[in-house]
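Let us practice reading a record.
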Amino acid sequence: MEHPVFSRVGRRSNTPFTVLILSACQEPFFLQEVVDGNLTGEPVAASEAFVDYVVSSPGLSTPEPYSAGGAASGSFTISNSGFTAGSLPVQWGVYASANNANWGTNDTELESGSQSALTGGSSVVVNFSGSWPSSGTFYLIVRISSLEDSNSANNQQESGPYTVGP
Protein backbone atom coordinates (compact mmCIF):
# COMPACT_ATOMS: atom_id res chain seq x y z
CA MET A 1 0.00 0.00 0.00
CA GLU A 2 1.29 3.45 -0.87
CA HIS A 3 1.83 5.97 1.87
CA PRO A 4 -0.69 8.82 1.41
CA VAL A 5 1.97 11.54 1.57
CA PHE A 6 4.01 9.83 -1.13
CA SER A 7 0.89 9.36 -3.28
CA ARG A 8 -0.22 12.96 -2.90
CA VAL A 9 3.21 14.36 -3.68
CA GLY A 10 3.73 11.91 -6.52
CA ARG A 11 0.54 13.07 -8.23
CA ARG A 12 1.54 16.72 -7.98
CA SER A 13 4.82 16.22 -9.75
CA ASN A 14 6.37 13.54 -11.91
CA THR A 15 9.81 14.53 -10.66
CA PRO A 16 11.48 11.97 -8.39
CA PHE A 17 12.45 13.25 -4.94
CA THR A 18 14.28 11.91 -1.91
CA VAL A 19 12.58 11.11 1.36
CA LEU A 20 14.08 10.77 4.81
CA ILE A 21 12.79 7.77 6.77
CA LEU A 22 13.13 8.14 10.54
CA SER A 23 12.86 5.34 13.04
CA ALA A 24 10.88 6.03 16.22
CA CYS A 25 13.04 3.62 18.25
CA GLN A 26 16.39 5.40 17.59
CA GLU A 27 17.42 2.90 14.91
CA PRO A 28 19.49 4.12 11.98
CA PHE A 29 17.48 5.88 9.34
CA PHE A 30 17.75 5.89 5.58
CA LEU A 31 17.22 8.10 2.57
CA GLN A 32 15.54 6.68 -0.50
CA GLU A 33 14.25 8.12 -3.72
CA VAL A 34 10.49 8.22 -4.29
CA VAL A 35 9.24 7.78 -7.84
CA ASP A 36 5.49 7.78 -8.57
CA GLY A 37 4.73 7.26 -4.89
CA ASN A 38 7.02 4.24 -4.45
CA LEU A 39 10.35 3.96 -2.65
CA THR A 40 13.10 3.03 -5.09
CA GLY A 41 16.84 2.53 -5.12
CA GLU A 42 19.25 1.53 -2.41
CA PRO A 43 18.94 3.06 1.06
CA VAL A 44 21.64 5.46 2.15
CA ALA A 45 22.97 4.93 5.68
CA ALA A 46 22.55 7.68 8.26
CA SER A 47 26.31 8.26 8.41
CA GLU A 48 26.23 9.29 4.74
CA ALA A 49 23.10 11.42 5.07
CA PHE A 50 24.61 14.38 6.89
CA VAL A 51 27.27 16.94 6.03
CA ASP A 52 30.68 15.41 6.78
CA TYR A 53 33.66 17.61 6.03
CA VAL A 54 36.98 15.80 5.66
CA VAL A 55 40.48 17.27 5.25
CA SER A 56 43.10 15.39 3.22
CA SER A 57 46.29 15.67 1.18
CA PRO A 58 48.15 18.45 2.97
CA GLY A 59 51.45 19.19 1.31
CA LEU A 60 53.99 21.84 0.45
CA SER A 61 54.60 23.36 -2.96
CA THR A 62 57.58 25.39 -1.72
CA PRO A 63 60.80 23.71 -2.90
CA GLU A 64 63.47 22.61 -0.46
CA PRO A 65 65.59 23.71 1.30
CA TYR A 66 63.28 25.29 3.86
CA SER A 67 64.60 28.16 5.98
CA ALA A 68 63.41 30.01 9.08
CA GLY A 69 61.24 32.93 7.99
CA GLY A 70 61.07 31.46 4.49
CA ALA A 71 57.97 30.51 2.53
CA ALA A 72 55.82 27.59 3.61
CA SER A 73 53.21 27.36 0.85
CA GLY A 74 51.09 24.47 -0.27
CA SER A 75 47.60 23.08 -0.48
CA PHE A 76 45.12 20.64 1.04
CA THR A 77 41.70 19.28 0.10
CA ILE A 78 38.39 19.78 1.88
CA SER A 79 35.65 17.30 0.92
CA ASN A 80 32.04 16.85 1.93
CA SER A 81 31.82 13.05 2.08
CA GLY A 82 28.19 13.24 3.20
CA PHE A 83 25.08 13.04 1.06
CA THR A 84 23.71 16.43 2.11
CA ALA A 85 24.82 19.85 0.86
CA GLY A 86 26.31 22.12 3.47
CA SER A 87 25.01 25.60 4.16
CA LEU A 88 27.61 26.95 6.60
CA PRO A 89 31.25 27.83 5.91
CA VAL A 90 34.20 25.62 6.81
CA GLN A 91 36.90 27.30 8.92
CA TRP A 92 40.45 26.07 8.35
CA GLY A 93 43.90 26.59 9.80
CA VAL A 94 47.37 25.42 8.79
CA TYR A 95 49.97 25.04 11.55
CA ALA A 96 53.68 24.27 11.93
CA SER A 97 54.08 21.86 14.82
CA ALA A 98 57.60 21.47 16.24
CA ASN A 99 58.63 17.80 16.48
CA ASN A 100 55.06 16.60 16.90
CA ALA A 101 52.36 15.40 14.50
CA ASN A 102 49.63 16.28 17.03
CA TRP A 103 48.13 19.76 17.11
CA GLY A 104 48.69 21.80 20.25
CA THR A 105 48.20 25.35 21.45
CA ASN A 106 51.93 26.05 21.07
CA ASP A 107 51.87 25.30 17.33
CA THR A 108 52.45 28.25 15.00
CA GLU A 109 49.62 29.22 12.69
CA LEU A 110 50.87 29.62 9.13
CA GLU A 111 47.52 30.76 7.71
CA SER A 112 43.81 30.40 8.38
CA GLY A 113 40.67 31.12 6.43
CA SER A 114 37.15 30.16 5.51
CA GLN A 115 35.78 28.02 2.68
CA SER A 116 32.17 28.30 1.55
CA ALA A 117 29.89 25.29 2.10
CA LEU A 118 30.22 22.30 -0.22
CA THR A 119 27.55 20.14 -1.82
CA GLY A 120 27.44 16.46 -0.90
CA GLY A 121 30.21 14.46 -2.54
CA SER A 122 32.19 17.50 -3.68
CA SER A 123 35.74 18.68 -2.91
CA VAL A 124 37.84 21.80 -3.19
CA VAL A 125 41.59 22.34 -3.12
CA VAL A 126 42.62 25.16 -0.76
CA ASN A 127 45.96 26.94 -1.17
CA PHE A 128 47.82 28.44 1.79
CA SER A 129 50.91 30.54 2.27
CA GLY A 130 52.85 31.29 5.43
CA SER A 131 56.38 31.47 6.80
CA TRP A 132 58.34 28.94 8.83
CA PRO A 133 58.57 30.24 12.41
CA SER A 134 62.14 29.13 13.13
CA SER A 135 64.67 26.45 12.32
CA GLY A 136 63.97 22.91 13.45
CA THR A 137 61.83 19.94 12.54
CA PHE A 138 58.14 20.61 11.87
CA TYR A 139 55.00 18.78 10.92
CA LEU A 140 52.38 20.52 8.83
CA ILE A 141 48.95 20.20 10.47
CA VAL A 142 45.69 21.21 8.80
CA ARG A 143 42.52 21.51 10.89
CA ILE A 144 38.99 22.25 9.70
CA SER A 145 35.69 22.86 11.49
CA SER A 146 32.10 23.69 10.66
CA LEU A 147 29.08 24.00 12.93
CA GLU A 148 27.14 21.55 10.76
CA ASP A 149 29.85 18.88 10.46
CA SER A 150 28.53 15.53 11.68
CA ASN A 151 31.92 13.88 12.27
CA SER A 152 34.84 15.84 13.69
CA ALA A 153 37.09 12.77 13.89
CA ASN A 154 38.29 13.35 10.30
CA ASN A 155 38.95 17.10 10.59
CA GLN A 156 42.72 17.03 11.04
CA GLN A 157 45.50 15.80 8.78
CA GLU A 158 49.29 15.95 9.07
CA SER A 159 52.26 15.72 6.75
CA GLY A 160 55.97 15.81 7.37
CA PRO A 161 58.35 15.97 9.07
CA TYR A 162 60.02 18.92 7.34
CA THR A 163 63.52 20.09 8.27
CA VAL A 164 63.83 23.87 8.39
CA GLY A 165 67.32 25.38 8.44
CA PRO A 166 68.49 28.75 9.76
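A brief commentary: The chain has two helices and eleven strands.
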